[in-house]
Amino acid sequence: MRAAGALILLPAFLLIAGTAPAAPVSQEAPVSDLLGTWDVETEDGAFSFVWEFTLEDGILKGLYSGRSGDAEMQELKFEDNMLEFRVDVGMEISFSASIDRDYMEGTLSLEFGEAAFTGKKRT
């Protein structure tokens, strides 16, 4: 029940966007699978997000967009089909997901609990 309560509070925490330097991309990572725009939704459908991944001068960058605003992804990592990043919106929210071509599934974690999510890459 604590996780459900935290998700209700999530929009309030997403109003403030944090930024941090992007991480270099490993040459072994299949970055092309990740690049582009993704539509992401929590398992219960209560929250939806749009994530956009780009590669600029060999640096992977990501933009997180939700109904409460936009934020640059921090500590963004993509290696061996695993995606990890966090968004600091007055409270840290961490995301981790496995990527399989144009589909992802993962978990978001915040102080009050976790929630599952899935995503589909736009074509």
Q: What characteristics describe this protein?
A:
Lipocalin, 9-stranded antiparallel sheet, mainly beta
SS strand fraction: over 45%
Query: Segments where pLDDT lies below 50 for 5+ residues?
Result: 6-19
Number of strands: 9
Cα shape: globular
CATH architecture term: Beta Barrel
Query: Averaged pLDDT, please?
Result: 82
Count of helix runs: 2
Question: What is the CATH C-level name?
Answer: Mainly Beta
Share of helix among residues?
10-25%
Radius of gyration: 14 Å
Main sheet: which strands, in order across?
4-3-2-1-9-8-7-6-5
Structural class: mainly beta
Largest sheet, in brief, is:
9 strands, antiparallel
Q: How far apart, in Å, are the first and last alpha carbons? A: 36 Å
Number of domains: 1
Describe this structure in words.
The chain has one domain (2-121): Beta Barrel (Lipocalin), CATH 2.40.128. It is 13% helix and 54% strand. It has helices spanning 2-13, 31-34, and strands at residues 36-42, 48-56, 59-66, 69-72, 74-79, 82-88, 92-100, 103-110, 113-121.
Quickly describe the structure.
The chain is mainly beta.
Could you give the topology of this structure?
Layout: H1 2-13, H2 31-34, E1 36-42, E2 48-56, E3 59-66, E4 69-72, E5 74-79, E6 82-88, E7 92-100, E8 103-110, E9 113-121
Antiparallel strand pairs: 1-2, 1-9, 2-3, 3-4, 5-6, 6-7, 7-8, 8-9
